[in-house]
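Hi R.,

Here's the chain you asked about this morning:
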Amino acid sequence: MDLKNLMTFIHVAELNSFTRAGQKLGFSQSTVSFQIKQLERELGTQLFERINHTVVLTEQGRDVLNYAHQVSKLTQELDKRLQNEEEISGNVRIAMADSLCDSMLQEGFGEFRDRYPGISLKIITAGTEEMFRLLNQNEVDAVLTLDNHIFHAEYVIAREEKAGVHFVADSENPLCKKDELFPEDLAGQPFLLTEKGMSYRRLMDEKFAELSMEIQPVLEIGSAGQICSLVEQGAGISFLPDYVTEEKVCAGRLRYLPVKQFEIEIWKQLLYHRDKWVTPQLESALAYLSEREFR
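And here is the predicted structure, written out as tokens:
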């Protein structure tokens, strides 16, 4: 079996297109089609359904893809050993929530560069729906979400954990003097929030809607870190994940508000598509994110 045909098959499966696979590999579409037909003849099975200029893996094709990934990984490991490579190199594209991006870039990027100087990262901030569109179109290699728990047979969960989230105010805010608060106590407060529809902001809005309430923020901005700083300055209150606020809370500069009857479950998850070819550089990035972003 020609390994080149197997690698072409992996790219077609990931991109759902003979044309895009050829563009990525530097082959003509006819060359890609010939390689796939040759592979199908060798295996004695049809690997793709070709309908209206789209290609979709058959059940047999999915089985072959799993083996193709294993062969690819073993081939890379052999090449690495024979060439005595000292450095993993390549490009990795990650989509993540904006607040997670702040953590990665402000505190972890230097460490990542020291550990993997040959890897170039492209980080895209997006809402959960957009992240999975990018993942399904193979426009990113993995996603780091902060949302409801996501489980789907199409995705592999590399790592996950529950993430705490609280209403938060500066330590001098009058609300901090109360032992118990309810959602209606927050009506009319100056809220500083992330953009509408974004992960935990969306979940908060949905919960308020269940209570027939709506929050009109005085400021909407993408950066959770900037919101955290403004809350510390007394500009208003917010609803933020604990990993953004816990340092300031521990230092006494911010306080978690004891709001009752407002339980929201949020999960931090690192996922990639089950048909994704996990290259050494992607494997390294997943391992680093698992180590850094999860406890």
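One quick note: The chain has three domains: 3-83, 90-161+267-293, 165-264.

Cheers,
M.
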